[in-house]
Amino acid sequence: MADEHRLTDGVSVEAIKTFFADLKKEFPDTYTEMTTEDACKQLVVPRTRQDNCAYVEQLRKQSPEHVNKATVFVSHAWRYKIADVLNVLLEFAEEQASKEDSQPVFFWFDLFMNNQNANVTANLPQEWWSTTFKKSIANIGHVLLVLMPWRDPVPLTRAWCLWEIFCGISNEGTEVTIQLPKSEEQALEHTIYNDYKAVTDTLVRVQAERADAFNPHDKHMIFTAIESWAGGFGAVNQAVKDQLRAWCLQKAVGAVETMRARGEDKTDAFAGLCGAVGSVLSEFGEHDKAIAYYETALAVYLRTEKEKGENVAVSNNNLGNAYCSKGEYDRAIAFYEKDLAITVETLGEKHPSTASTYNNLGTAYYSKGDFDKAIHYYKKALAITVETLGEKHPSTADSCVGLGIAYEKKGELDRAIAFYEQALAIMVEALGEKHPNTADTYNNIGSVYYSKGDYDRAIECFDKALAVRVETLGEKHPSTAQTYNNLGGAYHDKGDYDKAIALYEKALAITVEALGEKHPSTATSYNNLGGAYARKGEYDKAIACYEKALAIYAETLGEKHPSTADTYNNLGAAYVDKGQYGKAIHHYEQALAIKVETLGEKHPSTAMTYFNIGLLHDTRGDKEQACAYVQQALDVFATTLGPDHPNTRKAERSLRRICGGGAVNAQHASTQHVSGSRLQQQNVLAHRHLLLRFISSAVVYQSSAPQRNLLMRFLGALAQVHAEARRPANTGSDGEDKKTGTGHGCPRGYSAPARALYKDACKCPGEPLIGWLRKRGRRRAAFRPCWCKFDDDGHLAYGKCASGTAKRRIPLSSVQSAELAHGGEELHVAVPGRTFVFRLHAHSDTSLADWCTAINNRINTTT
Predict the structure, then answer these.
(1) Which terminus of the chain has a smaller tally of CB atoms within 10 A, N or C?
(2) What are phi and psi of 821, to 5 degrees?
């Protein structure tokens, strides 16, 4: 250190003014273009070379009143124009002087405070960087960051500046002020008004690990301090971005208040700025504050445009978006419908803006769980965009994507893929392969393959999306994090939990750094991470992640939001796995209350919570409560998703297992008031599905003569049932119905030949039982997905994927017993010296009871 004053003293505002005047006097033609480095070499060094001292030492001798304890540490880039830097210091000092409790300002400004004739940092120990420097900034108490240009701030690329900012932020009690030159202030305000996304994108550029320094030694020492003391580059990036985010919001809000103070709060320009600021706030997850600004904008427009202007429509649309983000879908729909009415009246039905509003309505209804209405509006949007913009326009692709999402949620996965691929073809042709929208579409296609259980193809699509996003948006962008989350989900369901956790942690690190700890996307990453830990059997880690997600959702979206409810659901599931059923039911019931209030009782997400509660009651032995909740779930699934959706089938299987065969169709029919002819149609459909199952058996396995015989008997029985389905619904009597009761799980109302067929099918050792289950590892509690089937050599075979030869096999001849355990949630298959434990998988098409029956029947056959 050059002397004891170097990190404690500062220079006065008058000293800054005098230096600025000297600069203008000596370089009248070039001072406006000189950088700080130029001023150092051409003015400071010549003046101090003879004494080999810092500029402040000469100032102390000549005018000691202009040197005193520093009150503000100046952080700036030496590539800045010196005139801009000095002007910012003077503007800052003027603002400070206008405050009631103002104190004289003395700047610690490295150009003046360091001896520019020597390398003053060359021999400083590492401790100086990690401890002394930080303490000195704390002692000064205020860091002033000179930021320019705002769109690509130079200090955010300089190691020294990032380190100075971080030291200021991490010192409790140290104030950090970000200051722009006046010209940059105006440019920022203009951009907030016209291109608010450019403001939020600036934050993504902070990457400490890519920062540079003029002096390689300084860079090395700073990087060492970051890694060893500051918690790593991620911690520094996050801290700086949090500070910039707060500043960005402050500038946006300040721009509105400045216009209000000028008396311009009744103008369209003011309303436009309020709308833009609302969008900035919404982008940062501040939905309530965003709504307030949108409403202010709407009120101004309503006074000037009489409820029919284009700006009023835009404001309604913004409010719809904000309420959609908050999970208040009915309010969102109300604003979208107002937007639609104005747009149709002013621009006509066949206009791209009308199509855009139809798209928004589709999204709101999709979020509500009304997929048919969503499809209706997406189709309207698609027809308009094709007619007005053509088939090869990105807006046409957007409508295709909307339809894909809705069909995906309905369980019509092949139709979803068709629309996504149509959208992809348009995106590639119109925008190119390397475009964020193209990446979004790869993501969507991957999500459908994920839903189909084709995880390898899903991963292939997600990898393509990731490559595009990294190239176009960067590694540290929230959209890149989303793709890491998707990849994690695919590896998660493949059973590769360690890889899933690594990907989820990448996504979490990016969202925390880019958006902050208190952001819904960060909560989503915590939720995903919790799910992977739960699958690994590390329930305490899972619960810790879920609780972090819950706290963030409650703070950012509110306690009454579907995402908050989903996290309560996750906590409930984790406590079920831990065996803490009291805590589980408490969290499930909290989730249910929120979903009923926000989404309504007839929403698939609400139904899933009913289903979870029902299964938990079953586990606890309360069959009556279990049946009631699962029945309610089944009713909603059947109404909203249709009878063929996997969730509907899963609920039917569970209800049949819990309540006993025959109760499902009868009770469901009475609940839904389905007509007799509808029931007959459902029976025919059920037979048709079973027929397909038998036919697939005949294809997959080389049928023996008895199996072919059975298949022929089934075809005959189906013909008879089809004929009976044509008879009047009131044929037969109650006595006959009771006499022909069910057996072996055959639904009530089936003909005698069909019931005989069911009975034979249950006994048939060649029953084509095949599909996904989850198997517990031999030495750990984690359950991993596996594809199970009976092979031709008398084994229960299982492997990691549906294609190829299963590598693991359980000889049925060695099985001692196969039985359901833990309330039917687990299947235990015992062989000498070991018990194999299976659970249902999310994509299971058959129940554990089916597998148990089939295994026992095969054991009986082989013995």
Answers:
(1) C
(2) -140, 165
Instruction: Report the domain count for the chain.
Output: 4
Prior bond of 149 cis (ω within 30°): yes
Coil, strand, or helix at residue 108?
A: strand
Spell out the residues 6+ positions from residue 637 whose beta carbon is closer than 8 angstroms to its own: 604, 607, 645, 647, 648, 651
Task: Check whether residue 700 and residue 799 sit in a common domain.
Answer: no
Residue 421: inside a domain: no
My answer on whether 69 and 204 are in the same domain is: yes
The pLDDT tens digits for 556-587 are 888 888 889 999 999 998 998 888 888 999 99
Q: Do the beta carbons of residue 35 and residue 79 sit within 8 Å? A: yes
Rounded to the nearest 10°, the torsion over CA 593, 596, 601, 605 is -90
The HSE-up count of residue 650 (CA atoms within 13 Å, CB side) is 19
What Å distances lie between residue 801 and 57, 279, 659, 779, CA to CA? Answer: 75, 45, 33, 22
Q: Are residues 86 and 232 in the same domain?
A: yes
**φ and ψ of 100, to 5 deg:** -60, -40
Q: How far is CA 129 from CA 54, 137, 159, 174, in A?
A: 20, 11, 12, 18
Listed residue (826, 838, 763, 833) closest to 796, CA to CA = 838
Q: Distance of alpha carbon 122 from its chain centroid, rounded?
A: 46
Q: Is residue 840 part of a domain?
A: yes
CB-CB contact of 585 with 548 (8 Å): no
Burial per residue of 347-384, b for 16 or more beta-carbon CB atoms within 10 angstroms, e otherwise: eeeeebbbbbbbbbbbbbbbbbbbbebbbebbbbbbeb
Distance between CA atoms of residues 252 and 199, nearest Å: 10
Residues 847, 814 share a domain: yes
- Note the pLDDT tens digit of each residue in 103-150: 899 998 988 988 888 765 555 555 555 566 777 878 888 888 887 765
Place of tokens 């030291």: 167
State which residues form the domain around 288.
264-347
**DSSP classification of residue 747:** P
Residue 523: band (very low, low, confident or very high) from pLDDT cuts 50, 70, 90: very high
Task: Please count the helices (runs of H) and the strands (runs of E) in the chain.
Answer: 38, 13
In 3D space, the residue among 608, 803, 750 whose CA is nearest the CA of residue 616 turns out to be: 608
Judge if 680 and 718 occupy the same domain.
Answer: yes
Q: Do residues 239 and 273 both lie within one domain?
A: no
Q: Position 667: which residue type? A: Q
Give the Cα separation of 358 and 362 in Å (integer). 6
Do residues 703 and 801 both lie within one domain?
Answer: no
What residues form DSSP beta bridges with 837?
828
Structure-derived torsion over alpha carbons of residues 329, 332, 337, 342, reported in degrees to the nearest 10:
-170
Q: Please state, in angstroms and rounded to a whole number, the distance separating the CA atoms of residues 622 and 609.
A: 17
User: What pLDDT is stored for residue 376 in this prediction?
Assistant: 92
Identify whether 598 is part of a domain: no
With vertex at residue 564, the alpha carbon angle to CA 560 and CA 569, rounded to the nearest 5 degrees, is 120
Report how far residue 420's alpha carbon sits from residue 615's, in angstroms, rounded to the nearest whole number: 35
Q: How far is CA 106 from CA 64, 65, 73, 349, 367, in A?
A: 13, 11, 9, 64, 56
